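Re: export button greyed out
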Amino acid sequence: MSAALLDVSDVTIAYGKVEAVRDVSLNVGDNEIVTIVGANGAGKTTLLNAIMGILPLKGRVGFAGRNIAGDDIEDRVGEGLCLVPEHRELFGTMTVAENLQLGAFRIAKAEAAATLERVYALFPRLHERQKQLAGTLSGGEQQMLAMGRALMGRPRLLMLDEPSLGLAPLIVADIFRTIAELRQAGVSILLVEQNARAALKIADRAYVMELGEFILSGAAADVAADPRVIGSYLGFQGEATP
Amino acid sequence: MNATILLFLLQDGITNGAIYALLGLALVLVFAVTRVILIPQGEFVTYGALTYAALASGKFPDTAQLALAMGLVAFVFDLFANRHGFNLRRTARSFAVNVVLSGAVLAATLAFAGRKNPVFVDVGLALLIVACIGLYLYRIVYQPIAHASVLTLLIASVGAHLAMQGFALVFFGAEGLRGPAISDVSFSLGALMFTGQSLGVYVITAALIVGLWLFFGYTLYGRALRATAVNRLGARLVGIRTSLSGRMAFLLAAVIGGISGILIVPITTLYYDTGFIIGLKGFVVAIIGGLVSYPITAAAAIGVGIIEAFSSFYASNYKEVIVFTLILPILVLRSLAAPEVEEEQD
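Workaround output, generated via the alternate export path:
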């Protein structure tokens, strides 16, 4: 997998003396959906934040053939790596349109206008609410805005941290459908989810994280069929959803 | 008290209040974007005023040399920060912003100093010099510790204030300076006398506030500054550099401070340390606005200006005491009204 878009190897992330993530390696290929599933506190968010540069890490983070482990967040964004963080981090007192415009801060104006049309096509709800303040949107709309804002930066790899958290089931289905559509449009996805069932359904490959380490990885269907995964994350109906 | 005195005090208060409003807005802006409590704001006032006064009286302002010196230090800082991966474009940009710009400003100052220039040349030069100093001050003092706590940034601010005040004493001496008025026109309206200078204060303050409003509301960079103020991590995640926002905020604060200084130096004599007291009043009004609200800050500034005018009429010895004591009941009220907030993490 030398041609992988994202190639993380032997990464350790520590909060002080406590190692939250130990010796983890993962890769995401071009046009691939990869998911990391695991329980609360396993270290999934920590790993994503460190890949984005929000947290310091030990190890190598290869992106598009270059080690970006020492780069600033802003440089990583410029390279085409975007994160939709768990708490969304929207500009709450600014309008939907302003949030989206700022998502394209590093993109040329003409290109940004074309991207904006695609984002509105993907999330018609955002188009309806473009004049509304981001802080007044519902949870699902905020998640759409966070994804839309990240897409405005024209990412090659989009990292999504718990996009379904706290959303109604119908909206969750919507969000996952959008993720599948994004891959069609040529964006690679690294998806962190507690909703393992939904994540494994759309992913090509999956990693299972427990206490800061990957205990299992492989094709999503194989991971979904693993007895340990069925027992811990998919519950009794796990067998029925490869 | 008769109606004439009342009107006169109100006019005086509003003139001062307009200046405090500008300084308060700059403080709110800098705090919102960088979390820095900008104590050296007063020095921008002093530097702007005294540089302008020196230029107008045909002297060479040493602040131009300070700008170049700070630019060189800032350039070395940038080189050091990039030591792990030399990047030609980044280095060239840093050279242009830090060395070429300040060198050009110094050259222009050398060319124009000692001559009788039109007012706008002196004003423009003074503002350019102060703008450079503000820009480099951020690079040298604050950017290396941009992610430190508010307290650390405050301590750095105190240090920067003391250093800049010391430089001001070296450059301009302990004697006060007064500058020429921007315009000599004056007219009376009833019992009130309006000078060109006081009208200039109103017009320029209003224009600046409208200009800032347009900048923040309608330009990409203005929105990027607001975004940084609203959510620093969110801004970084869309690629807005903390250092870019910080530099813009300091540039604006320095120019606003410089303009305030140039507006008041024809009205009152300014000493090397006068800016600090004026800046502190800007701080009082910014605190009344909770360091977040621009409209409350502007309104509070007019209020503080009027209270100051009346207290200098009734109890001139206690003028400063009265103005600064105002902050106590307001802090009590604010702490009762606002829920306790934990310091932001990032």
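The mean pLDDT of chain B is 90. The button fix ships in the next patch.
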